[in-house]
Design brief:
six-stranded antiparallel beta sheet, two-stranded antiparallel sheet, homodimer
């Protein structure tokens, strides 16, 4: 009883919801609001938490299929005078790629918020000195998107020269994991 | 002329030098002075510089063939409440492994100071949640030592449980590289 009506209402609601999500996505992209500020403004992650004033606070922006960020290293992020530390390079690439994965999974699932993803692994290659004192450009792209995980390839470049690359695997956590619904 | 005498003097001096180095190494090991404090006390690297008061300041100690460290994460190193950020995990493993490589190269070359090494690549696998609020144990071991590079495998464990592993390649830089003689 009322099954057909219920299905119809659900379809309409679903359509409105999907449309609203699509518009929200277009709106926040048009407003150029970072993924972190859209979906996790109270997050205190060392790499990407907007609310961690001792963290790196990277901001990742959608640009077509890619996700980009800019980052200005501070003097205490050095490996030595003039050169950025490899651990900080890894932290930037890890968090930026994680958000790229979360956003790709959200789109693939046609959901309105990204799932909470954690890093399974990341492999950083340091190709050249990444300098201090100049803004770094990060660019990431999902290369494989499965149901609950994504592979992301990312790079850091300075004045057009790629200084570091990263390939990471990121997993959407399930209920019960401590990271579930942390955003 | 004097070739034989010069060779003899050089051999004696070399023997004394090697002996002194061996004694210095035994002494500093016996005193349990970290590699960073022995060889680079003024280093300001984010991960391992004793002189960077905003850095992680890890201290790596020789234990037979292994190099170990303990690290107590701070609240701002979180990924989220109770869980350590993957980027910080990578930074710890990268710097600790780098010192393991530098020490292994020094021993292999029978030199008195470690060469300045930089990271070529590192591959971190996060196997389980690395918690906050408890000391982490790091352990690293060189698995390949060549003339100017070393491969190091490392892990982080908490209460005996391995939560993260890393395989890294580290290269002794040559004259002209900005990292040459930075320690």
């Amino acid at each position: 009883m009322f099954t057909r009506e219920y299905s119809l209402i659900r379809a309409i609601a679903g359509g409105i919801g999907a449309g609203a999500r699509r518009w929200y996505d277009l709106f926040t992209n048009a407003m150029d609001i970072s993924l972190q500020d859209r979906y996790a403004p109270r997050n205190r992650c060392f790499g990407c938490g907007p609310a961690n004033d001792q963290g790196l606070r990277i901001k990742s922006y959608v640009r077509g299929d890619d996700v980009v960020a800019e980052f200005m290293p501070e003097p205490h992020h050095q490996a030595f005078e003039g050169m950025l530390n490899g651990g900080i390079i890894g932290a930037l690439l890890d968090c930026h790629s994680n958000w790229t994965a979360a956003y790709a999974l959200m789109k693939a699932r046609v959901e309105s918020t990204p799932p909470c993803t954690v890093t399974a692994e990341f492999h950083v290659k340091l190709l050249a000195v990444t300098p201090l004192g100049t803004a770094l450009s990060l660019r990431a792209r999902p290369t494989e998107v499965r149901n609950s995980s994504a592979v992301v390839e990312a790079e850091i470049s300075v004045d057009g020269k790629v200084t570091a690359t990263c390939r990471g695997v990121f997993v959407a956590v399930k209920e019960g994991h401590p990271a579930y619904h942390r955003w």
